[in-house]
Every structure is written in C-alpha cells, then in structure tokens.
Amino acid sequence: MPALGAPFAAGLVLILLWEGLARLPGAEVLLAGPWDVALWLRENAGLMGRALAVTGAEAAAGFVLGNLAAVALALLAFALPRAERLIAALALLVFCLPLVATGPILRVLYGPGPGPQITLAALAVYYTTFVPLLVGLRAAPATWFDMVASYGRGHVAALIHVRLFAALPYLVAGLQIAAPAAFLGAMVGEFTGAERGMGVLTIRALRALDVEATWALATVAALVSIAVYAAIGRAGRRLLNAPPPVLLAPPSAARGPSPGRLLLRAGLAGAVALALWWGAMEAFDLNRFFAKRPGDVWAFLVTRPEAGAHRAELFGALGETLALAVPGYLAGLALGAALAVGLTLAPRAASLAMPVAVTLRAVPIVTTAPLIVLLMGRGPAGTIALVAVMIFFPVFVACLHGLARAPGQVLDVFDSYAAGPVQRLLHAQLPAMLPAFFASARMSLPAAMLAVTVVEWLATGRGVGALMALSASLSDYAMLWSAVVVVALATVAGHALLGAAEGRVLARYAGEQLR
C-alpha cells in the first residue's frame, strides 16, 4: 500500500490543479474540469461505454497484430543477417506513411467496417516495438555467444537462447510506448468515416464545440492507455528480475556507415517498395482513380505540363510542416532525455513525475490539438508544443529503461570508490542509455511527422497535413498519393542522417550494437 501512496498523491494533485485551472475566468471555453467531466460521463455512460468498447477492441486488435508483426520482423532480420538492412528499411518506409493520408486510402480499399481502424492501430505501434527489439537483440555479452559457439551451435541457437533473453527489457519498453499509439491509430481510423467509436464522438464534439465531451473523451482514452501502460510495466517487473549483464563489448574500429551508404540502402529499399506497391495494385486490379501507381505519381510531379505547379504546392506545404516538425522533434528529444536523467538523479521524484508524463502522452492528440491551438493560436508555438509532447514520452520511457541497464557490478565499482551520483551517471549510466536513446530518436522521427500533420489537419489548416486532408475530401488522389510519397521520403532522409550519427557514437560507446 505505501508504494501506491506517492502515485495516488500525485494523481490527486493533478486533479486539483486541473479543477483550479478550469475555474479560472474564461477557461470554460477551452477546458472542462474533472467535476464537469465526471458529470458528463455519468449522463452519457451508456454512449461512452459503447464507443469505448468499439475503439478499445480495434486498438487491442491493432496492438496485438502490430506487435506480433514487429517481433516476427525482428526475428526474421536476425535469422537472415544479410536481409536485416532491407527488412529494417522497408519497415521504416511503411511506418513513415502518414496516417492522415493512409486513413482515407484504407477506407476506400476496405469499405465499411473496422479494417482501417485496426490497420492504422497496427501501423502506429509495430515500429515502436521493432526498433527497441532490434537494440535488445544485440544487447548481450560477447561471452554468451562464445559459449553457444563452444557447444557447436549456430546463429539460430544464439538467437533463441541468448538474444531473446537479452531483448526482454527492450520489448517491455516498446510495448509500453505502443499502448497510447494503438489508441491514437484506432481513433484516426475512425475519423475517416467509421460509424461508431470514440473517434466518431470526438468529431461530433469538436464540431459542436462541446468542451465537456471533448475532455471526457480525452480523459477516458488517457485512463485506458495509462492502465495498459501500468499493466505492461507490472508484468515486465515480474519477468525481469535478473540484474543487467556486463556487456564488455570491445569498441568497434568502424565509425558507422556514412550518410551516403545509408541513403543507398534506403534507395534499395525504396526500389523494393515501389515494386511491391505496383505489384499489389496490379494483383488486386484496383481502380486507378484512387489506387495510384508509382508511374501516376511520377507523371503528376514530373512529366505533366502542370507538374511544376503541383511540385510548388506540395513542397511549399512540406516546407511549412518541416519548419514545425524539426524544432518540436528536437525539443521532445531534449525533454525526454533530460527528464529520464533527472529522475535517475532524484529517484524519489519519479513517483510524482511518472503519472504526469504518462498522462501527457496518453491523452490523444486528436482530441486536444484543436483546443491547444485555440489557446496558443495558429502560430508555430502550439504546434511545436504538441509535437514535443508527442515525442518526449517514447524518448523518456526508452531512456529510463536504458539507464536502468547499467550493470550493477559496474555501479558497485563506483560505490567502492565513493563516487557520487553524477560520476555514476556520466561514466556508467549514460553510456548504457545511448542505444535506447538513439532507438527512441529513430522511432520518434516518423511520430513527429504524424503529430504535426494531425495538428495541421485538425487545427491549423496549413502545411502538408492540411493539404492531404483537403486532397482526400476533394478526391484528388494524385496529390494525396504524391504527398504520402514525399513525406515518407523526407522522413527516411532524416532517418538516414540520424543513423549516421548513431553509428559513429555507438561504435565508441556500445560496440555490441554493431555486431
């Protein structure tokens, strides 16, 4: 019971602060307090229960399918080492497809039913598990592999008996990060024309400027995400009772792949993706009116007489989006890492800070984006703040898990020399955190584009997010598919630059990640 005291106190403080802010003069236009939310939920309990059952089932199905796909892809990548780079690149390309654009396309392909919602939920979560799992599969001591080899066992045996055990902590982190993302993906799918669910109620509430309903929906979604996050964490603590091992991997002589090589790998993956794209469209004989082929996008942007105007419109909108996504992304990285480090130095504050951090990320951006932008204006500040909030949580969770992977034997050495917490942090915990930090930075890059395009779609009416929403409403599928391709390529290019920096750093501080 004492273990629950601090989180309960933190939750009570948050509720009181929330109620106080809601009672400020003029706040009722933007913020409904917890008492108003409770009254709305009591009056509409049946409606909310039915909507939650629909969206929860869709999010759960997407969560399971997406994470199963992530585990299968990671195991396949290690079982086939020569195909690992291609598998990772294709997984990145699919994750870079903006949900704002893929939602309407999936709605046309699937028709009525939960198909788009489940697919978008799965797409929103699989990469957030795939990337940490890849890091975890490498986080094993070299001596363990030597022992497997000494018994005459091969690559598959090492994968089963060594790598899977080492990857469990990273898998738990990925599953925790995926919980709010699955709910968001399901709600975005419902925005594209579903008949039931919390996304449908959110659309109605936003159109009617029903602040109580909007915050009630956000509160319920946040509570569900927090409950799943806590349940996964509790299960992880029961499974992961062994202390972190000492990796003792020698520094790699390589400085990591160059940006050019990473871009070349991305180009190869792109060629495979184009072949799969064209092949799928032709195999299912999909109508070219909405199912555009690579050649259609090329003609729209390059060869048609009006291609110049199309490029100017699309790249102008992309420039507006990147001007907001980049600072929001960097701010989220800094905030997440700083908060994780701060809680490591002051562990007693964790019970107070964790509920706040989980709550901020668990509130779906689709419910709060219009209200936040209304409060802060349509300028860059509101959008950058929302992107930073979207990014900081996966970075924060991953860095916390990374800091906890510092081996106890190493920390005992520092204690024997009476080293302080700062020395332990600089020389033991931060190096252990670096693989997790870069993994979170990689999987957060597409999330930054998702956040900014959702805000542009729902609130600001500018940038490539608004352009994609307008194109979908006008059935301008050539522009919609072109926007999908351009956004994905821009994200992949940023990912390649980040990968180059990661390779150089990890070659020095985490040589096991380059094995």
Automatic annotation (TrEMBL):
Keyword Nucleotide-binding attributed: no
Protein name as catalogued: ABC transporter permease
One GO term of the biological process aspect: transmembrane transport
Transmembrane segments: 59-79, 86-106, 118-137, 158-179, 213-232, 262-280, 322-346, 358-377, 383-404, 478-498
UniProt domain ABC transmembrane type-1: residue ranges: 48-232, 318-498
Gene Ontology cellular component annotations, sorted alphabetically: plasma membrane
Bilayer disposition of the protein: Multi-pass membrane protein
Swiss-Prot/TrEMBL keywords: Cell membrane, Membrane, Transmembrane, Transmembrane helix, Transport
